Amino acid sequence: MLHLFKSPIGRLRMIAYLEGTSLLILVLIAVPLKYYSHDPALVKVIGPIHGALFLWFIFNTLSVGIQQRWRFRERTWKVLLACIIPFGTFYIDHVVLRKAAEE
User: Fold this and answer.
1) Is residue 57 part of a domain?
2) For residue 4, how far is the Cα from the chain centroid?
């Protein structure tokens, strides 16, 4: 797992994983606790963390896209769209980022 941090695309893949995981925790654990147990504490913690990871993913995608000279219409827009679609970061990591890291 540490090998991911050695390249810009590897770091982007790690951020994608963290962003997707934070959404899973938010949707599957924190929100049900908020509504069924009337305990919003976890949403108050995980919500801002997920928001920060979301923004970090967007900025990092743009940075990597410029650095790697990705054509926006071929790759960058797909990666950006992935963070808007729920759990899209897992898909985009598997389909696009893994291949980009191998190039």
Assistant:
1) yes
2) 14
